[in-house]
Amino acid sequence: EVQLVESGGGLVQAGGSLRLSCTASGTSFDHYAIGWFRQAPGKAREVVSCISSSGHTTEYTDSVKGRFTISRDNAKSMVFLEMNSLKPEDTAVYYCASALTSWCSSRSRGYDSWGQGAQVTVSS
User: Which of 50, 54, 83, 105 sits a CA distance of 20 to 30 A from 2?
Assistant: First the structure.
């Protein structure tokens, strides 16, 4: 089983940037896709981005395309989410999660290991 810890959240002004990191421990990190999800107060959790186990395939929800970039370093067991041109509506708790497969899933039930979350707050 993979254990995940997020870091890099914080408070930033609109238009600013943040880089989230997801550090994994345990076995077989490089066998599984990793997703980033977010949950804003009063809203359902939504998938933001996902990267396949090899890193060759990435996916983004429409609202972050062109602003966010996902990447991974399997040698270091880490996944990153570079967030640029941040907007107040990006404010949420961000979670990384390990998929059940090497390819991405857009559904929460496709993931079985979750980090504790990192708060991202974008002020206007």
Answer: 83
